TrEMBL record:
Keywords: Cytoplasm. It comes from Nocardia thailandica. Belongs to the gluconeogenesis factor family. Required for morphogenesis under gluconeogenic growth conditions. This is Putative gluconeogenesis factor.
């Protein structure tokens, strides 16, 4: 997409609170939105329903539905997000998770269940799982043994997200999971694809580890924007700089390219640190755009600021380098490229 079109088709990939922030921003720009959501959660209500019913973990899917609801502050959106208290069997479950569980059993299809809740909430767009099967995340983690050179495998999204060690690499189990057919089609027909922000190893990187999604992301003609986190997260990315986030994404998917990396201007000081981020972005064949997108005093993205930054970014002429990579005419490697 060379310029801004009226009501462009936007696909947002991620999970949890990061995807919620992206969707809350993107819905200000278009009505043609598809959320593609991770399905590896194994904690809390989602983990319990997944273990008991064998269903896709519904929590992140539910949050995406709520973000796109016609009235996010209305009764239905609030009810879907409502979590039961007390100490009984329902304690900790959210109404939306149980609703998705029931509809999945009645309709026999998790995507049909999501569409039905989408109609109930009158959502803008559509919410889809990244894979039709629940996935597990396994990480190679160092720093858990006396010898820091010794790594240990940790399995499960919650365990990876909260590890006191240093995550080196993650993989999906099964290692070659199917991609959701509707998600692949949405990416193939998108005008814009937005990846991130979110938990880097458990909500962002998994999208490029599903072969079908990675292929679609490689070949789509959509403009691809990577939204960087505002800060490192305790646990999985503790101590990570902005450039380290880009390095590990590139290491997990060397053939993955994006057009722009959107970085909060206050999170990376001007000077040498920004030069390091720009060099790291070259591995993704991307240029870096710095913009004020933060909620003041927090590590969260401000929906209005993020929407304005994405709007301004997409209105600009599309960089040629990532576009050539998408077309298959640019060699994949670590060429040094000047974006000045």
């Amino acid at each position: 997409m060379s310029g801004w079109e009226a009501d462009p088709a936007v696909v947002a990939l991620g999970g949890g609170h990061g995807l919620y922030a992206t969707l809350t921003a993107v819905r200000r720009l278009t009505r043609r939105i598809t959320a593609v959501v991770t399905v590896a959660d194994d904690g809390g209500s989602s983990g319990r329903l997944r273990a008991e019913l064998g269903m896709l973990p519904p929590g992140d899917l539910r949050m995406a539905l709520a973000a796109l609801a016609e009235d996010p502050d209305g009764v239905w959106a609030g009810t879907v997000q409502h979590r039961f208290g007390g100490s009984g069997a329902l304690a900790g479950h959210s109404v939306g998770n149980l609703l998705l569980a029931g509809l999945t059993e009645v309709l026999g299809d998790p995507v049909a269940a999501l569409d039905e809740v989408g109609r109930l909430l009158r959502i803008t767009g559509r919410v889809l799982p990244m894979s039709p099967v629940p996935l597990d995340i396994e990480a190679e983690v160092s720093g858990l043994e006396e010898d820091p050179r010794i790594g240990r495998c940790i399995r499960g999204q919650v365990a990876v997200a909260t590890t006191p060690g240093k995550v080196r690499r993650v993989r999906l189990i099964p290692s070659d999971p199917p991609a959701g057919a509707e998600a692949v089609s949405a990416i193939e027909h998108a005008d814009v694809v937005v990846l991130g922000p979110g938990s880097w190893f458990t909500s962002v990187i998994p999208h490029v580890l599903v072969p079908g999604l990675r292929t679609a992301l490689t070949h789509t003609r959509a403009r691809k924007v990577l939204v960087l986190n505002l800060a490192a997260e305790p646990g999985e990315t503790a101590g990570f700089s902005a450039e380290r986030h880009l390095h590990v994404l590139s290491q997990h998917a060397p053939d993955f390219a994006v057009d722009e990396v959107l970085v909060d201007s206050a999170s990376v000081p001007t000077g040498r640190q920004r030069e390091h981020v720009a060099r790291a972005a070259e591995q993704l064949r991307a240029r870096v755009v710095f913009s004020d997108v933060a909620e003041p005093g927090t590590d969260r993205h401000h929906p209005g600021k993020l929407a304005a930054a994405l709007d301004q970014l997409i209105r600009q002429p599309r960089p040629q380098l990532a576009g050539l990579a998408v077309q298959g005419r640019h060699p994949v490697g670590k060429e040094r490229v000047s974006w000045r």
